[in-house]
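Ticket #4471: structure export looks truncated?
Reporter: QA, pipeline team
Priority: medium

Steps to reproduce: submit the single chain below to the structure queue and open the exported record.
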Amino acid sequence: MPRNVALIVAAGRGHRVGGPLPKQYRELAGAPVLYHTAAAFAAHPAIDAVRAVIHPDDDALYREALSGLDAAMSEKLLAPVMGGETRQDSVRLGLESLAADDAVDAVLIHDGARPLIHGAIITRTIDALGEHVGAIAAVPLSDSLKRANAVDDAVDDSVIDEDIARAGLWRAQTPQTFRFEEILAAHRAARGHSATDDAAVAERYGLRIALVACDDDNIKITTESDMARAEQILRNGSPAASVGAGVWRVKVGMGYDVHRFAEDGDHLMLCGVPVPFERAVRSHSDGDVALHAVVDAILGALGEGDIGVHFPPDEEKWRDAKSDIFIAHAMSLLAARGGMLDHVDVTLICERPKLKHHRAEMKSRLAALLGVAQSSVSLKATTTEKLGFTGRAEGIAAQAVATLRLPTAAIHETQDVPD
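Actual output as written to the record:
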């Protein structure tokens, strides 16, 4: 089975953001920057392992930053490795640390200070390896470009020397995803030669690398204004959503799912978390009613039918499938429309098990799977006062409401799709 490893480069000393800590350990929306970055990859169903490359002085900072990851995400963490003098050195050392593992098929190299990476972009770069040796997240340029001719080397007094055609120009971001053996060989060959990024290392080695369209929210935190913008995106959604009347519209979807309890078992999957219980559920997949309800809510807001349309329960390939896959699919459909998830509200309905002590882990896991801040997730549990099938402890139900923002154009394209 293919094994995909995320290599998060976090060995830099970047202090331009301000404060005594390197930027990857600064607090952002209630958690360190590096926590958000690592959680995005550890929560992704296609990522099997995550390894960070850190500065030798930062071991304690690293362990504290990632201590908040839930158990499922923490299981994917490999021990960190120490970086080198330059970013290129750090990447090579990270790759070498993986070289002894024959099971590594693909590596996703990502900046530790890019905490807003979306799961859909991770998926697209991995999928691109079906046809390409490597693929990088990038943004096509939309602004006019000017080359400056500085007067007396003073930037403030620069004048335009020439126009540069922007057609075909892109801004490179991360993740930069490669077939492992090829990028390892390229980095080994590049020792002593400086390159701007890993794609440049690959190109120098003769590899052709694909571009995968990303969005402007996948920023690399470099300055204090970057930190402020990232905070706003995580807490309130993209600032672009409030610009221009009629550019964005809010769409709301509702999802509902029910599963009957089996005769025996030892746990239930809820929000991607295994909750101990003496009975499992009867289900073709892993039976996570919470995630199934969330998927249906997102699909409903998009006008894309329900979960059964996309993952038919009579297809054997979905037997025992993790519901993480269904979430990733729904979010990729949202990303393909240029939309974003503002908020999701989930209610679990059951007499048993009691979920109070699992709520924090479940909420954290759900937020990570959706690629949003925990403030964008509401999770509640209730009973039916012993009425109905849930009151008789015959099963468990969940309902979810998802609030999305979609560009007006994307809504126009889909509003007439029949049921």
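Status: closed, not a bug. The export was complete when the record was re-opened. Leaving a note from the reviewer for reference: The domain at 248-414 is CATH 3.30.1330.50 (60s Ribosomal Protein L30; Chain: A;).
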